[in-house]
Amino acid sequence: MTNSKSFSFEFFPPQTQEGANKLAATRKQLAVLKPAFFSVTFGAGGSTRERTLEAVQQIKADGYEAAPHLSCVGSTRENIRAILHTYKNMGIKRIVALRGDLPSGMATSGEFHYANELVSFTRAETGEHFHIEVAAYPEFHPQAKSPRDDLLNFKRKVMAGANSAITQYFYSADGYFRFIEECRKMGVTLPIVPGIMPIMKFSQLARFSDACGAEIPRSIRKILESYGDDTESVQSFGLDVVTQLCERLLAGGAPGLHFYTLNQSAPSLEIWKRLGL
Ligand code: FAD
């Protein structure tokens, strides 16, 4: 029923051999689901440049599609050019182009200021070689001057040559559908795949959400808070919430799902099973 939809999983590059072994196992378990691609994040300020490349090489070596993330922060034209050509020569066909965030202590963002500049540069350097994914924010980017401005800035990235978008995670399907409607009204027609964050640990989720501006609705937050250290209840409730969200998104026409796995397979596998995909 969902064959035409795009399902993908996101990893972060591991720091240790133990982390790398764990990620290899996670990848193997998720590969059974035949995702469109596995993406690999790019650490704040370019801090994982080498490790992102290594993780991407491993995914390719196992025979799967890999989509490295690339960010403006901490990058120069020269090193972005080099990495684009490295990826192109490796047979990578898809990248996720981002602005990134300034890590504390880093004063300037680098030679590119916004993701639209990175998208334009990638097109100028490599033509139509890459399928370019960009980030979208149904609840708006925390630094946006206004929702309208954010939408116009999103359109700017699309006009620069993006092929599709992946959203920041959210727990309100209505917000996503409203965002899609606004995009369509502006003539932005590319696929916008919801980013899905399974709920595993409330304190971690709250920390991420504070940092990136993703809203945890009060009706969900209050219940999660009430479970305290009872991880089993948090996860069981979290699975119900996220499965229902995915069901609504897919039924309402979302073009796929992109799972923020945090390098774990179990939550995504369970949601997948419950969705009957
Ligand atoms: P942009 O699209 O450049 O937007 C950033 C802000 O600037 C917005 O407020 C926007 O409204 C405004 N803006 C955009 N263009 C202009 C313009 N031309 N003029 C004026 N204002 C403008 N971060 C990482 O460090 N590494 C990762 O691997 C990573 N992966 C991510 C994957 C996904 C799917 C998502 C949703 C986010 C990811 N992030 C990652 C986080 C992301 O880098 C941050 O959210 C960052 O703050 C914004 O990046 P962006 O590409 O959306 O920026």
What does this structure look like?
The structure is a single chain. The chain contains ten helices and eight strands. The chain is of the alpha/beta class and 277 residues long. Helix 3 links the parallel strand 3 and strand 4. Helix 3 crosses helix 4. The chain is globular and about 50 Å long. Bound molecules: flavin-adenine dinucleotide.
Q: Overall pLDDT, averaged?
A: 94
Large-scale geometry: globular
Q: Which CATH architecture?
A: Alpha-Beta Barrel
Q: How much helix is in the residues?
A: 40-55%
What fraction of residues sit in β-strands?
A: 15-25%
Strand elements, count: 8
When the domains are counted, the total is 1
N-to-C CA distance: 8 Å
For the biggest β-sheet, the strand order reads 1-2-3-4-5-6-7-8
Based on CA atoms alone, the radius of gyration comes out at 18 Å
**Which fold name fills CATH's third level, the topology?**
TIM Barrel
**What compounds are bound to the protein?**
flavin-adenine dinucleotide
Q: Which secondary-structure class do the elements indicate?
A: alpha/beta
EC number: 1.5.1.54
Catalytic activity: (6S)-5-methyl-5,6,7,8-tetrahydrofolate + NAD(+) = (6R)-5,10-methylene-5,6,7,8-tetrahydrofolate + NADH + H(+)
Family: Belongs to the methylenetetrahydrofolate reductase family.
Protein name: Methylenetetrahydrofolate reductase
